[in-house]
């Protein structure tokens, strides 16, 4: 089977590798154009483009599927297109090019969490089970019939980045299995059923913490927005980032946002919530690098006036 692979970020690379390992004829790769990265804003190929270059595969770089991209895809004559986090909509005129259509690997149990940030929203919502789905791409947003699914238990200590990394590998196997079934004429997509939830792309404002919320809800939000867009609050009029926190159900006497600092060998930083406290494990004050919470607390000594807003 001739397969076009479409993807952009690092989480799509395992799927590209899996298709090649499974023996599919990957005739080309569609990815987003090079983007400026780092402080010097150096134009850098996407992780998928970089891997394709290593493999010597033809690469189509396109922000959107315009006339030129459609022509380039058609010239590759794919039997199917596999898509994993490409980052742009596929227009109807491109959907009809491969005879088997576009098979999308999506990191949720559809119809739950349709949209750009399914894993992040799943973690924020406190889902105990998540997973991945392969489905036939159609005009609607993640609405197509499903070929297969896998499930993963959500460890409450995992960030969305860590969970997505796990799903990228197990999902790659599912994608290869789905394409093999399609190639053998044994795949039967099933219409989606169940409650629909949406997972739009997160903004910086989604990372702002509300200390009046219960500790568990705040921890889920911290984990859900890590690594992007990142969790934050304000202190001394500046943004203060929080990379990780753990529940302290034994501490019940702090008001929401009130911080208690410990110094010396047992330094710690506890912050009050709408329920019990959280202990800050990783923090990033304005203008500094991410650091362990105890190091930040030790640097402030015995200050008693620290309040997050």
TrEMBL record:
InterPro entries: Fmt, Formyl_trans_C, Formyl_transf_N, Formyl_transf_N_sf, Formyl_transferase-like_C_sf, Met-tRNA-FMT_C, Met-tRNA-FMT_N. Keywords: Protein biosynthesis, Transferase. Residues 2-177 form the Formyl transferase N-terminal domain. It is an enzyme of class 2 (transferase). One of its GO terms (molecular function) is methionyl-tRNA formyltransferase activity. It comes from the Bacteria. It holds the Pfam family Formyl_trans_N. Its EC number is 2.1.2.9. It catalyses: L-methionyl-tRNA(fMet) + (6R)-10-formyltetrahydrofolate = N-formyl-L-methionyl-tRNA(fMet) + (6S)-5,6,7,8-tetrahydrofolate + H(+). (6S)-5,6,7,8-tetrahydrofolate binds at residues 108-111. Transmembrane segments: none annotated. Residues 201-300 form the Formyl transferase C-terminal domain. Belongs to the Fmt family. Attaches a formyl group to the free amino group of methionyl-tRNA(fMet). The formyl group appears to play a dual role in the initiator identity of N-formylmethionyl-tRNA by promoting its recognition by IF2 and preventing the misappropriation of this tRNA by the elongation apparatus. This is Methionyl-tRNA formyltransferase. It comes from Arthrobacter gallicola.
